[in-house]
């Protein structure tokens, strides 16, 4: 890249190597906004907080180019600003920092549009697409480009639905400002007020800080809770059949709302693997009903506590007990009024929305077995088989036993439904499905509070799911034996190689090999237990432990890097086929490829599209890991 | 064997001193205890004073039919030895007897040659010679330890090595019998799965998309005892497996996430059934794309193929450690 000559033509290699976030997000922004904006973002990511002259100095780009890039980044929520006033010089300076919110919106853009399209329709998806592309939009601006009164009304309706369902959120003055800086300003104000009020009083530093923090917490919550825009969000138009969105209010896509959707999808998907197909679909129905009202995926109180732990001179960090208390309070939100669901409500939901989730009253029928019938039949089969033949003196006769077990199942036939009185049976079947979902206390998809009252324990289930998914990745990548060893280590907390091999009944050499691989990915930690006074390495024993949080963090970063690589590969492939793609994109060739392209070019084009779709799929699959490890771990 | 005798009358007894000693030895053996304290010996012999008892014990020690031991709390103990054993030891050289005594003390655990050398303070050649001699007379035998496969361990010829040495039922010829373990794991899992989900392995698939037992049926799930009974009665193995062995196997299955414990009863996980090809709905291709589902890594069994060398060499592979290795 040449200095001071303007636009960088290629991102420097440091953007790839310094952190996985930098690699992925700069690659992503390069595709959306170009190299310059991606480079500015990368610089902001490095230096956390910069003024415009500082940024320009670091970027070595023209000021106008930096400004242009910065405006785009700010509009798309990839950067935030904060105007700080120096109390001595009384000069105001604006600082810029990077923000991942906009990057995540780009990362999930296609999935968001697909979801909205499936749930609401084409018009709604088009509106959301416009909002995502521009960062924010007023309904008035959108309506300007709509022809005809009927279409305009449809669009207004669509806006209204998207706002009511919280997919679109109004922008207030704090929206583009750095959240931490806003908090820090409140903290500084409270410190100044406290010092002025208590001048000359003898107060310990710890007590002083505690009082200031308490006051900061209160003031900050008050500040964040202020909703100046929401009161003006809808216009009071009595002639209209629906609430119209104020055409002058800027709306942006609400990522938090989409995260709730992702959470529901992952919960339902896991229920499919843990409980069963129909139970998971019923669960998806319940999640869909409660989704909009459910607690935010990211706990705002916990975020505030993290900020508070960062201020002052104590430097002890966030107290785990505080985290527990905050989580405990947040868990209570999951069982608030309106978050409980009964069987009759599930039934109503099934009738109303069942088909959308692939479950109907008919498909629920006969999905719960009657144990008395099943066991009665099995006992009969066992009697007729007249026990097992004499014990042969051979070590294993597995096939024979498996055959015998299989024959029990294959002989079963079930015809136990009662078509005359379906409703009570359906209700009872639904209740049994809900009970199945609530059955495992270690993996509570639902919790039964009172008889027949269920709620979704979002806060409790999210980290459980994240740990489980992480283990499934370990199983898929390193192998089922690695999962076995990892679970054993987790069960025994701190254990050595010999004990592990004894417990998992595997050869020591195999266990050693697996432990080595788990260590290389930082999935487990190692602790030296010296046996001699000189801590001779030859005689030392090493014990292993599993801490999910750092392991998941490391894994997440590896996946983020892999996603960056996927984008890189797509880019490389595009470059390799540049001549052909340029030709295909020519106006005179478009639509007439079969006529105008050579057979070899057609083959090459086909291969290119196949390659592209494969890598987009890989990228999408990797992204599902980020859904869980980035947003559901807290 | 030379037996020293000292004719004297012991007050309170009618026989000779030698007879008293022999009687005490016989009583010690008859009681079946491996060792006795001084107080216990006083009670057995019904002697009045310790002095008399000590004279008698000294006589037995001289004859080589009683051995001195030390308890954990540093008390002196007396161990009776049969006449035949005494004859055997008396025929050995002093070095051989010393080596033999350490091997005998090691019991069913056995003793490592290096430990013998360290304890006896004899030269390695001497120890080797003694071991060879004792082995040739079938007084001792060499065993292979599972814990320390490289070590040469000796124990008395007639003893059966302890489980620590042999490794228990999971070892065949001191090698972990992985095939045996894997087969038992499959059998147990299949047994528990058939009790946890009705018709999950029905040929051709199930007639409904899900067919589960209600939660109230959990008490019908198999317990450890039932699994043990099933393994015992099924004839899958001639090796006797204790309840703790079955528990070990069930723990392995829990670590593999194939079983879970529900109120001390075992239930197979639905995921394990799906991975084994069970729980399928008749006529539905499980390998077909499912557009309405979010990608889940738990679907690996359904949506992913193991990577071949060809794909890997094409450069179309992402490696998890690529960030770590940059």
UniProtKB/TrEMBL annotation, chain A:
InterPro entries: POLR3C_WHD (IPR055207), RNA_pol_III_RPC82-rel_HTH (IPR013197), RNA_pol_III_Rpc82_C (IPR008806), RPC3 (IPR039748), WH-like_DNA-bd_sf (IPR036388). Residues 23-84 form the RNA polymerase III subunit RPC82-related helix-turn-helix domain. Residues 410-421 have a biased composition (Acidic residues). Residues 472-544 form the DNA-directed RNA polymerase III subunit RPC3 winged-helix domain. Residues 404-425 are annotated as: Disordered. Its main location: nucleus. Residues 158-465 form the RNA polymerase III Rpc82 C -terminal domain. It is found in: Nucleus. It comes from the Eukaryota. Keywords: DNA-directed RNA polymerase, Nucleus, Transcription. DNA-dependent RNA polymerase catalyzes the transcription of DNA into RNA using the four ribonucleoside triphosphates as substrates. Specific core component of RNA polymerase III which synthesizes small RNAs, such as 5S rRNA and tRNAs. Belongs to the RNA polymerase beta chain family. PANTHER family: DNA-DIRECTED RNA POLYMERASE III SUBUNIT RPC3 (PTHR12949:SF0), RNA POLYMERASE III DNA DIRECTED -RELATED (PTHR12949). Component of the RNA polymerase III (Pol III) complex consisting of 17 subunits. This is DNA-directed RNA polymerase III subunit RPC3. It comes from Pichia angusta.
TrEMBL record, chain B:
Keywords: DNA-directed RNA polymerase, Nucleus, Transcription. This is DNA-directed RNA polymerase III subunit RPC6. Its main location: nucleus. Belongs to the eukaryotic RPC34/RPC39 RNA polymerase subunit family. It comes from the Eukaryota. It is found in: Nucleus. InterPro entries: RNA_pol_Rpc34 (IPR007832), RNA_pol_Rpc34-like (IPR016049), WH-like_DNA-bd_sf (IPR036388), WH_DNA-bd_sf (IPR036390). Gene3D superfamilies: Winged helix-like DNA-binding domain superfamily/Winged helix DNA-binding domain. Pfam families: RNA_pol_Rpc34.
